[in-house]
Predict the 3D structure of the following.
Amino acid sequence: MIRTEDLAMSAMRALRSNPLRSALTALGVIIGVASVVAMVALGRGAQARIEQSISSLGSNLLIVVPGAMRGGGGVRGAAGGWNSLTMGDAEAIQREVEGLAAVAPSQRGQAQIVAEGLNWNTRVEGVTPAYLLARDWSVAEGRFFEDRDVAQARRVIVLGKTVAENVFPNTDPIGQTIRLSGGSYEVIGLLASKGQSGFEDQDDIALAPLTTVKRRLTGRRGTADSVSQISVKAASEAGIARAQEDITNLLRQRHRIRGDEDDFTVQNLNSIAEASQEATKTFTALLASISAVSLLVGGIGIMNIMLVSVTERTREIGLRKALGARKNDILQQFGLEAVALSVAGGVIGLAIGVLGAWAITAAAQLPLTVSIDTAFLAIAFSGAVGVIFGAYPAWRAARLDPIEALRRE
Amino acid sequence: MAAPKDDLIVAQGLVKLYQMGDEIVRALDGVSFAIERGGYAAIVGPSGSGKSTLMNLIGGLDQPTDGRLSIDGRDMGAMDDGDLATFRNRTIGFVFQSFNLLPRMTALENVELPLIYAGETPKNRRERAAELLTRVGLGERMDHRPTQLSGGQQQRVAIARALACRPAIVLADEPTGALDTSTGQEILALFRSLNKEGATVVLVTHDSEIAAATRRVIEVRDGRIVQDRVLENAA
Ligand SMILES: Nc1ncnc2c1ncn2[C@@H]1O[C@H](COP(=O)(O)OP(=O)(O)O)[C@@H](O)[C@H]1O
Ligand SMILES: [Mg+2]
């Protein structure tokens, strides 16, 4: 029996004997693998980006907002309008729904922060201390305000990283005073950075006690008791669906809703994440399968050249058989040549694909995710292409009649 | 020598038919003979008489339509594909008229080829091939490619290759057909010395001078043996 390394050697020798032809033959596989790798990396990058931005909002998070949700997406005002959510709702959820880690009512506002001659327009959220836990924020420096501060509507504020950098470029913000909508506030803490979410800078934010914001910033909007949002964190991922249902029932009861149309919406961040994950996955699969067609074309190219090669080397095959080569030896020799061609193409294609993915993701500002399994798959796939499209030419070679083959000029 | 008769090749009523369109060609038409171990025989006859067909049968490259062929006590008809490949590798050494060397390989690599199919290690292969090339007088040209060698030298490489796996039988189909007379004589001398060392040599030729140098001449015509003579050449 022939030794495996001798088989490999003879395949290498055959491919090296006509480098240009080998390179051109492998080109189809190179292009195929490169585009599959690039497309998958692009898709995964987009997926990772979506995952990042959704999970940075907070894990196991339900967000209750006023207004009804229409099938397609938009929240629209309903009975009760934008004031349909109240502090009382938040307290009731806290009191009556089980399996929750945090319930955080908040009021959104927009204001100009002024300090030391610099100013910065930002989102000012009126929140309670539970907001930190519900939205997965943490304090990097200083402290967060406490329930006492909320109860007394104290004028304290915690700044996001972007705000701090723009308003206090050179000084430590903690303990400084800023002016906001005519009042002065003491900066007591800085939030740890969360980075970009989609196109929004999550660090462009300031948090102040809910009562303070209601009274001094957005007082004229809504009723004294209304809030713009209630963030609810379930204690576990498994408890989210249940919590969503319980909250919906509770609020329907409290708002005395009989018909189909609620005046609030409970958004489940996990299911939104899942849905968009699915969408990107489908999109990625679509792109990858279009690219896979070029891999198929590459395989046909290999088959074509291998058939030519078998014809050209008919006499050699006859001789090898006369010298003791078995059918299997010939089959393996030609099969291996095809596989070596396409795997070489696969490796080069992988390298080009990774480079391409790097270029595309850098341009689109997506995270580059080329995993080991993509690499492994690319190689395995090109190997399979070699086996499938090399099989027929190799079979033709193996079953050549040695006498006929030797007679051929 | 009074050794008992030891037949290495025994052919009984060999028939080989080829279909050529509507016509059936009788390449061999009932051929029977025996060649003893250590024999040196020439098969002669005009072109198209069936010499190559006979060699192909003995070499295990082809099967007879009818008749029995046994070599070294083994019935060729009972061998499967794999057995035949092993048989061609171990028992037979082929020498062709047109040398049939692989052009991209050196002389040494060409000689190693049968040893590759025998599963020999690279080290053993190289040693054996080098030894054989030295034996046929090409010790200095082992790294030459076929195109860098003369016809006679190429045929010597081919003979070295035929001997690689120490075959019992060397089959040569018109080995001097592509060579000039004096080179042909050198090749012939090589066969004679191989035979003296114990190899059974069967060669096909249409050159009566070459045939006369062997110890047995089997003459075929139209697929039949018409004459079978033992010559008085010293072994
Ligand atoms: N593959 C084949 N198909 C048809 N006829 C063949 C084939 N091989 C040989 N023959 C015929 O068989 C006869 C003997 O051929 P061959 O053994 O090659 O003769 P030789 O070697 O003595 O010249 C010739 O008539 C030849 O045409
Ligand atoms: Mg012939």
Notes: The radius of gyration of chain A is 33 Å. The first strand of chain A starts at residue 61 and ends at 66.
